Amino acid sequence: MTGNPTDPNAPLIPRPSVLSLAIKEKAALYAAYMPFLKNGGMFVPTAKPYKLGDEIYLILALMEDPNKYPIAGKVAWITPAGANNNKAQGIGVHFPDDESGQRAKLRIEEILGAALRSSRATHTL
């Protein structure tokens, strides 16, 4: 945590956790994408403990796309260790309602295309 350097009495503001996620194939993207969230979101496997609403800075790499997608999102979903149906442990990061979130959502949905309407199981539902 860091304090405000101009006001030593200011409350400490926790800095968002930084996570990176590299999606290598379409099936993995389908399994991790959370289209049911208002702005879209991504499941990120992690053993680190988080709480709902925690701020996360996610750096997302999508398959062959040379661009990285930096997203300042919030934890909207938690899958604990030992969850039912052998679900992977991790968190769902809700994309923000800003240019970075919209850019990531559009690119993911462009890659997934018709697969978005599939009924295959995902990491989330």
Strand order of the largest sheet: 1-3-4-5-2
Terminal CA distance reads 34 Å
Specify the helix fraction band. Answer: 10-25%
- Biggest sheet character: 5 strands, mixed
Oligomer: single chain
Organism: Massilia polaris
GO molecular function: cyclic-di-GMP binding
Protein name: Pilus assembly protein PilZ
InterPro entries: PilZ_domain (IPR009875)
Q: How would you describe the overall organization of this protein?
A:
- The protein is 17% helix and 30% strand.
- It has 125 residues and is an alpha+beta fold.
- It has a single domain, classed as Thrombin, subunit H.
- A hairpin with a 5-residue loop joins β3 and β4.
- It is globular, with a radius of gyration of 16 Å.
Summarize, please.
The chain has 125 residues and is of the alpha+beta class. The chain contains two helices and five strands; from the N terminus they run E-H-E-E-E-E-H.
Properties at a glance:
125 residues, alpha+beta, Thrombin, subunit H, five-stranded mixed beta sheet, 2 helices, 17% helix
Secondary structure elements and pairings:
Elements (H helix, E strand, L loop, with lengths): L16 E7 L2 H7 L8 E5 L9 E8 L5 E12 L10 E5 L4 H14 L13
Parallel strand pairs: 1-3
Antiparallel strand pairs: 2-5, 3-4, 4-5
